[in-house]
Amino acid sequence: MTTINSLSSLSSKTGIGGLVSGMDIDELVLNLTATSRNKIIKQQQKAQKLEWQQTAYRSVTTALKQFQSKYLDVLSQTNFRSASFFNTIKASSSSSATFVSSTPSSVEGTITIDSIEQLATNQTLNSSIAVSKPLSGIISMGNIEELAAELSGKTIGIQLDGKLKTITFDADFTDQVMTDPTEANFCNTLQSAIDKAFGIVNVSDRIIYTQVN
Q: pTM for this structure?
């Protein structure tokens, strides 16, 4: 009896009781921990499922943002509220001399331009009367040749209807004045420079000058 008790005590301390008793200790441990291990596996499965759901939610959120940016953003060319979105007909030209575009009501087909009878021109408006107030000012007249030489290379600023333009007394201005060094020619040359600066054409008597002795 004493020998068996001593052997059992030794077996429990050295972990070789299964060798003596013939029992599978590993299987016993697995069976005893089966419930705990099943609980751990279920929690791992739940965690994996939550991770998959999180990934799916992110994918849906990304898709919704892309949809919103592409079809609901007012700055997008494919905005649902833009008429161009419903323009399913694409127009193209085989020549760089023509430009074509389509509308939502365009019908599919081919258009051939055989010839051009008249080229388009820029639109212009002509007024029979002046469209701005007359210019007025005082010019100190003396010797026209000396005046032209003194003004050569200088500039003056003239404001008309809220627009400020700079008039330069350049070489062309001096040459024009010197062709006829009179008060009338000087004023006409100055008027031409002013008209050119402000884009005024086909008008006259826009400047009033007074001789100051």
A: 0.34
For residues 9-31, one letter each, b for 16 or more C-beta atoms within 10 angstroms of the residue's C-beta and e for the rest, the string is eeeeeeeebeeeeeeeeeeeeee
Calculate the CA 150 to chain-centre distance. 51
**pLDDT tens-digit series, residues 152-175:** 888 888 877 777 888 888 888 888
Place of tokens 């005893």: 32
CA 157 to each of CA 98, 108, 169, 184, 196: distance values in angstroms, whole numbers, following the listed order: 44, 58, 11, 21, 14
Do residues 92 and 110 make contact, with C-beta atoms less than 8 angstroms apart?
Answer: no
* Residue 127 CB neighbour total at 10 angstroms: 9
Q: What pLDDT digit, counting tens, does each position of 96-124 carry?
A: 777 777 776 677 777 777 777 777 777 66
Question: Taking the mean position of all CA atoms in its chain, how far away is CA 162?
Answer: 32
Name which of 174, 180, 172 is nearest 152 in CA terms.
174
